[in-house]
Amino acid sequence: MIQRIQTLYILIVLILHVLMVFSPIVKYFGEDWVVLNAYSISDYEKTLPLTILIALVIIINLITVFLYKKRTLQIRLLVINVVLIFGVLFFIGFYTYQILQTNEYKAYYQVACIYPLISIIFTFLAILAIKKDEALVRSMDRIR
Fold first, then answer.
1. Which of 23, 67, 71, 87 has a C-alpha 20 to 30 A away from that of 78?
2. Nearest CA among 90, 98, 8 for reference residue 49
3. pTM, whole model, 2 decimals?
């Protein structure tokens, strides 16, 4: 399970999103500092859709790691995962737009803002590695 490169890619995506939960995504400075986290905007407003999407990405990655014998299901779950990660990016942009339009704030993007983009790349690498494994298994079945 852990020997396969796609498992490492999936674990990297999992780690990035767990780090995203515990670190600020965007900081805004205006009259005072406002911080966008995975679960709230500086205790003013809860960001429930963003929280749910990040939690779903983490759960799907955990499930996908243990489905190493079902490669086609793994690929399908990872494609769903990419769609959810694009949703995370959408909501980060949505909340940033909402804060910058209503107030006179300036946005300072943190490192956690890049995590979804890195996650998409590693998810695509995992999909390619799983497809390569599937092709290898099918070619071995053909030889028998």
1. 23
2. 90
3. 0.86
Residue 42's pLDDT band (boundaries 50, 70, 90)? confident
106, containing H or E segment: strand 106-109
- Mean pLDDT lowest for which of 5-14, 75-84, 85-94, 129-138? 129-138
H-assigned helices in the chain: 5-22, 48-65, 71-102, 115-143
Task: Please tell me the distance from the alpha carbon of residue 5 to that of residue 62, in angstroms, as a whole number.
Answer: 16
Mean pLDDT of 116-120: 94
> Are 111 and 23 within 8 A, CB to CB?
yes
CATH 1.20.140.150 fits 5-134, yes or no: yes
Starting at the earlier edge strand, list the strands of the sheet with 33-36: 45-46, 40-41, 33-36, 26-29, 106-109
Element (H, E) at 33: strand 33-36
